[in-house]
UniProtKB/TrEMBL annotation:
<dbReference type="Pfam" id="PF00293">
    <property type="entry name" value="NUDIX"/>
</dbReference>
<comment type="similarity">
    <text>Belongs to the Nudix hydrolase family.</text>
</comment>
<feature type="domain" description="Nudix hydrolase">
    <location>
        <begin position="36"/>
        <end position="161"/>
    </location>
</feature>
<dbReference type="GO" id="GO:0016787">
    <property type="term" value="F:hydrolase activity"/>
</dbReference>
<dbReference type="InterPro" id="IPR020476">
    <property type="entry name" value="Nudix_hydrolase"/>
</dbReference>
<protein>
    <submittedName>
        <fullName>ADP-ribose pyrophosphatase YjhB (NUDIX family)</fullName>
    </submittedName>
</protein>
<keyword id="KW-0460">Magnesium</keyword>
<dbReference type="InterPro" id="IPR000086">
    <property type="entry name" value="NUDIX_hydrolase_dom"/>
</dbReference>
<dbReference type="InterPro" id="IPR015797">
    <property type="entry name" value="NUDIX_hydrolase-like_dom_sf"/>
</dbReference>
<keyword id="KW-0378">Hydrolase</keyword>
<dbReference type="InterPro" id="IPR020084">
    <property type="entry name" value="NUDIX_hydrolase_CS"/>
</dbReference>
Length: 185
């Protein structure tokens, strides 16, 4: 997908050289179409040495077991997104501990995926019946016998065998950046 008209004023876009790259830009105002992007999030919730997984109810990935997750809404923080997605897809309340992995997937709509380690807070796993057909906590041994998506298998290994706690939320940054949520090593 690509923009053909200015998202600010509606004028037809034309190609212009912006910092050495030909990009669609508005000849009337300052709008530049930088490209199509999406930001996805995923949760690695562990309870009693078992990982929370959901079975996907629709494509892409219908029938695969995955970690719960989804996409960020325009005005929603990344932290609020992952908390919401975990509860929607599995009925589990969890809080963010840190970021354990990032996937960069360049394609027509360039996707960035941020995987969070999360602390189980409350709830019994239940599928939402829309995005997930089943939900539960599973041991590494059980996961080996399940139809788990390859990317989820990789994330589980990263979370389980990680050499550090990952990027942690900076609760008291040295320099305050308004409206920014910061993570650091």
């Amino acid at each position: 997908m690509s923009a053909n008209f200015c998202l600010k004023c509606g004028t037809g876009l034309e190609f212009r050289d912006i910092d050495g790259t030909m990009r669609k830009a508005c000849p009337r105002c300052d709008f530049i179409f930088w490209g199509d992007y999406s930001v996805g999030v995923g949760a690695l919730v562990i309870k009693d040495e078992k990982f929370l997984l959901v079975k996907r109810a629709h494509n892409p990935g219908k029938g695969y077991w995955t970690n719960p997750g989804g996409y960020i809404e325009q005005l929603e923080s990344i932290e609020d997104t992952i908390i919401r997605e975990v509860e929607e897809e599995s009925g589990i309340k969890a809080k963010v501990k840190g970021i354990v992995a990032i996937r960069d997937l360049p394609r027509n709509i360039h996707n960035l995926y941020v995987a969070f380690s999360m602390e189980y807070m409350d709830g019994i796993p239940r599928p939402d019946g829309v995005e997930s057909d089943e939900a539960g906590f599973y041991s590494l041994e059980e996961i080996e016998l399940m139809n788990v998506a390859p990317f989820t298998r990789w994330l589980i290994q990263v979370a389980y065998h990680g050499e550090s706690k990952g990027l942690m939320k900076d609760k008291d940054p040295v320099v305050s950046l308004n409206d920014s949520i910061l993570f650091k090593v």
